[in-house]
Amino acid sequence: MIKFKLEDSEYIELIKLLKVTNICGSGGEAKHVVDEGEVKRNGEIESRKRAKLRTGDKIEVFDQIIIIE
Length: 69
Prior knowledge:
Oligomer: single chain
Strand content: 25-35%
Strand order of the largest sheet: 1-7-6-3-4
Radius of gyration: 11 Å
Number of helices: 2
CATH architecture: Roll
CATH superfamily: RNA-binding S4 domain
């Protein structure tokens, strides 16, 4: 499990989160992962690449869980 703390903003976009947590190596890879339906937000498949993730959101991708704090 990865805990990601929001520092300077009230949200982070989904594809940016996938890059900064090193789940994806590039923006293109992150977009592809989202397009393929591999990402769940709070238990639901998230198809919006730029979805604004906020404190309390839980992201599941592959075998990783990310909690936004």
